[in-house]
Amino acid sequence: MDDFDRLLERERDALSTYRHFSIGKTEWGQEIYCFALGEGKRSILLQGAMHAREYISSFVLFDLMEYLSHFYLPVKVYFIPIINKDGVALCIKGNKLKNTKKYQKMQKNINFFKKLSENDIKIAKNLLNRYDVSLLKSNGKGVDLNVNFDCDWGGGKHNFFAFPSLENYIGRAPCKAMENKSLISFTKKIMPSVTLSFHSKGEVFYYGYMGESREVRKKNKIYRHIIHKSTGYKAVYTKRSTGGYKDWCVMSLSIPAFTIELGEDSLSHPISSHHCHEIFAKVKSLVLDLSKELV
Ligand SMILES: [Zn+2]
């Protein structure tokens, strides 16, 4: 059993335990599940594994969900643990797949590939042939989801424009990736009070965006102190991280948003699920602490 099988097992357990629904599908036709806990007018949205190799965030979110289910929550908490399911599958299973005979007949391989179009198979094979996909950040189509949002799209220092890649490829147009379309419409629908994007690594969190409204800046300041106090992670202001989900939340919807980088910097990508519990321990109070501020 590898980390991807473990992750799907966690997802299956959660589906049979918590209130849930699908917010849409990935590029390869996989459901993107959202789980909901708590009641209240205000809500917090948490999502993980936007970057494939940072799937430790999915494990931490499943742990967090279980932990929070034992508390009374005066706000709604929405969890989207595996937004980039295709990328995570490719990251964990891809390198092993390359050394098998089945690789030549891609359609017969890991379940996701069955439904792929000829073009998607070509892109996936190109990624597998060209790179060490255990370091993949992008989705199954080689688009880096966290530079594909419509917020100064293509204006980032490391943006890559040419072709599908391990990371930084912005896609042909903003918000075209299916995963992002789903996340955008769901965010607009629920209009959360704050969004937390879980990435890895470094034990820091990013906040803000140049040009943010005064209102957002004020709230950011309050939430920032809570996040720092709760996790011990260092707050870092991002002046111009373009095309990210956090950036889009701040600029398009005026929602305070944070990117939280889980795990010590000394750990290597991808961080194995064995580290989940020690990482979870540092962030487990975060949602409870934030929810007290929101009511
Ligand atoms: Zn990331």
Short précis:
With 295 residues, the protein is of the alpha/beta class. Helix content is 37%, strand content 16%. It has a domain at 3-85 and 177-294: Zn peptidases (Aminopeptidase).
Task: Describe what you observe in this structure.
The protein is an alpha/beta fold. 37% of the residues lie in helices and 16% in strands. The protein has a domain at 3-85 and 177-294: 3-Layer(aba) Sandwich (Aminopeptidase), CATH 3.40.630. It has helices at 3-15, 56-68, 85-98, 118-130, 178-190, 214-231, 245-253, 276-283, 286-294, and strands at residues 19-25, 31-37, 43-48, 76-80, 194-200, 204-207, 234-237, 257-262. Helix 6 runs antiparallel to helix 9 (286-294). The radius of gyration is 18 Å and the shape is globular. The structure holds zinc ion.
Write the layout of secondary structure elements.
Blueprint: H1 3-15, E1 19-25, E2 31-37, E3 43-48, H2 56-68, E4 76-80, H3 85-98, H4 118-130, H5 178-190, E5 194-200, E6 204-207, H6 214-231, E7 234-237, H7 245-253, E8 257-262, H8 276-283, H9 286-294
Parallel strand pairs: 3-4, 3-5, 5-8, 6-7
Antiparallel strand pairs: 1-2, 2-4, 6-8
Helix pairs in contact: 2-8, 6-9
Residues 51, 54, 146, 199 line the site of zinc ion.
